[in-house]
From TrEMBL:
NCBIfam families: put_DNA_pack. InterPro entries: Phage_gp6-like_head-tail, Phage_HK97_gp6-like. It comes from Muricomes intestini. This is Putative phage protein (Predicted DNA packaging).
Length: 95
């Protein structure tokens, strides 16, 4: 379940290719962050049900948008709290 560059650019409403590298890096970072907050291993991530993957995709796109819009002043603590709330239904108690 990977968010594509084009999907992220559509979500961000970015039409130029000037920031493609930045957005791709944000996707990578957001995916890792969501996986960590949801407490899913790589194997669990790959074997997840569709409804869980949809929620995680939304969380990844939200994270990309947050980091894109707040490049200079991102509050990572607030972002993590928001992601915990978004992922509450799928978040594991521990690894």
């Amino acid at each position: 379940m990977e968010v594509t560059l084009e999907e992220a650019k559509t979500y961000l409403r970015v039409s130029s290719s000037d920031e493609d590298e930045l957005i791709q890096n944000l996707i990578t970072s957001a995916t890792a962050t969501v996986q960590d907050i949801a407490r899913y291993s790589d194997e669990e991530w790959e074997a997840s049900e569709e409804k869980i993957l949809i929620r995680m995709r939304i969380a990844i796109l939200y994270t990309v948008a947050y980091l894109y819009e707040h490049r200079e002043d991102a509050d990572h603590n607030q972002l993590n709290l928001t992601l915990r709330a978004l992922l509450f239904g799928v978040r594991k108690e521990g690894f």
